[in-house]
Amino acid sequence: MTAVTQPVLHQPLSGKETSPLDIEKIRADFPILAERIHGKPLVYLDNAATSQKPRAVIDAIVHYYEHLNANIHRGVHTLSVRATEAHDAARETVRRFLSAADTREIIFVRGATEAINLVAQAYGRTHVTAGDEILITAMEHHSNIVPWQMLCEEKGARLRVAPIDDRGELILDEFANLIGPRTKLVAVTQVSNALGTITPLREMIELAHRQGVPVLVDGAQAVPHLPVDVQALGCDFYAFSGHKVYAPTGIGVLYGKRALLEAMPPYQGGGDMISSVTFAKTTYNDLPFKFEAGTPDIAGAIALGAALEYISGLGMDRIAAYEHDLLTYATENVGALPGVRLIGTASQRAGALSFVMDGVHPHDLGTILDREGIAIRTGHHCAQPVMDRFKIPATARASFAVYNTREDVDALVKGVRKAHEVFA
Amino acid sequence: MTAELGELYQEVILEHSKAPRNFRRPTSANHEAEGYNPLCGDRCTVYIDMDGDKINEIGFQGSGCAISRASASMMTQMVKGKTKAEAVKLFEQFHNLVTGKDEAARAADLGKMAVFGGVSKFPARVKCATLAWHTLQSALEDEKKQEPVSTE
Q1: In the annotation, is A382 catalytic?
Q2: Pairs of CB atoms within 8 A across A/B
Q3: Of A114, A250, A394, B124, which one is least surrounded by beta carbons within 10 A?
Q4: A311-320, A370-379, B37-46: lowest mean pLDDT where?
Q5: Residue B146 forms part of a structural domain
Q6: Would you call A363 and B18 a contact, using CB atoms and an 8 Å cutoff?
């Protein structure tokens, strides 16, 4: 690598462009897309598991370690100041990306899983008591099920599950009926990782708020595909992972309304989350640092900022429109294949296409496609209750990112046909 | 199909996966165990009618990919009439075969099951091939296992 450019951290985030995206140019930004797998060009359709990283993100990590690396909020020396400024700038980028009111509402965590666990521990353990209820939906990822189960078990509370229909859509009436005087929190996904369903979040949040119940949104599968405005949504907490939105693994975000975060006890204790410590009494630091004990993933946060700058530069509206067209094309073409049954046919979908095939187990399909250079996910997608709902052990899932093309879908269709021939 | 894929999905494996043998619960079964591969959701229950130390009758049920079904089907054919010790030794040889540790196993005691040698080129599929065997081992140990045996 020759030139390492400092990531641009203060350009205005754009989002309303309507001209089409230059996908070939975007593909050139992702070095890994040049890889060959078993001698074939890589067709990466496992983006719901993790996305690939653009050069801007890789460069941001390299730039950080070559020019900025020092611990933050500590030293008076220049590097520490530089690192702190870059880390702060990344937080501001996240705030703008989510349209949050205040950077103090942006907590850096390891990922959506840790964000949800933070809320379950710090908010849930304070507010939930025996006989209370937490409401989730039947299409949650395990990461938005298990932390609540653990909390309910500890407190003697009850986990309620709003059902979905055969298309994989939330049954809104039943969801509404499950919100009652004992409901202490609603925790719902914005986009289902296994089905691709986009949930009717605005309605759900309104229903919960009408009864004074706060709402946590698992946005892990939404943030890469849809413009998100936490203030317009009105959600109380919003969780997402960096690595699904073109940033590295190990970094993620919890957004929380300031008043809620202020009232919550810390999640973990340690350095950086305190104002003063004596053996008699510790005073906690202000937001967001109260929830960021220990030296954080500084490079990760800066690289997340670079990733969000990158996709904001492309325009989230344009990405959403392009991916919607691609998913429609994939749904039509894969859905038309003999023996294929789509799992998840909600009217509003994003990101993922799940399907099963007569006579071909998803695992065998995954192996055949892999030999064609096509990466998909097969299995239960960390959403076993969804599999149970559709009475299947597993699905094959193709999931998309902005660098995927109709040619990728055509390769998938060809590969699925090939698998059908092998096993027919 | 590429050569490696052809090695993995040999005709005999495809045939067994489509029409698995001993795909039932023998009425005389006195040992059973459930196997589960949490990575892909495959399930397999192995039923054995043990007569002393001998596998008198064996069957299996469950859902899984072609590799796991064919492996279970051929395993039941192979271990029927064998002693517990013989079955455990066959599992060891089979495991060596699918993990590429022992090419010689092809010519040894595994007979028809040597067709699973192609699995060694597909590390992600080793657990599919061994699920039934893990379950068999568990069923041999206990008359009735309470907890499913996991490939993890």
Answers
A1: yes
A2: 52
A3: B124
A4: B37-46
A5: no
A6: no
Alpha-carbon distances of B43 from B56, B64, B135, rounded to whole Å: 23, 6, 10
Residue of A382, A393, A405, A410 marked catalytic? A382
CA distance A92 to chain B (A): 38
Across the interface, do B4 and A371 touch by the CB < 8 Å criterion? yes
- According to DSSP, the β-strands at B31-37 and B42-51 are antiparallel
Beta pairing partners, B144: B32
Averaged pLDDT of chain A: 94
| CB–CB contact B67 A364 (8 Å) | yes
Cβ–Cβ gap B66/A368 under 8 Å: no
pLDDT in tens, A319-342: 999 999 999 999 999 999 999 999
For residue B150, is it within any domain? no
Structural domains of chain A ordered from first start: 40-45+315-423 (3.90.1150.10), 67-312 (3.40.640.10)
Chain A CB within 8 Å of residue B67 CB? yes
pLDDT band, very low/low/confident/very high, at A423 (cuts 50, 70, 90): confident
Joined tokens for residue A422: 């092998």
CA distance B6 to chain A (A): 10
**For the residues of A332-399, what is the DSSP string, one character each?**
HHHHTSTTEEEE---SSB-SEEEEEETTB-HHHHHHHHHTTTEE-EEE-TT-HHHHHHTT-S-EEEEE
Q: Alpha-carbon distance A226 to A307, whole Å?
A: 15
Q: Which domain holds residue B84?
A: 3-141
- Which member of B42, B63, B125 has the closest CB to residue A367? B125
In a domain, B151, yes or no: no
Averaged pLDDT for residues A229-242: 98
Check residue A11 and report its DSSP letter.
S
Instruction: Please report, for the domain that includes residue B87, its CATH number.
Output: 3.90.1010.10
Give the mean pLDDT of A371-381.
94
User: Is B64 inside a domain boundary?
Assistant: yes
> ipTM for the complex?
0.87
- pLDDT of amino acid B146: 56
The model's pTM is 0.92
Instruction: Summarize pLDDT for B113-134 with one digit per residue, the tens.
Output: 999 999 999 999 999 999 999 9
Hey, is the C-beta of A142 within 8 angstroms of any chain B C-beta? no
User: Over 50: is that where the pLDDT of A228 sits?
Assistant: yes
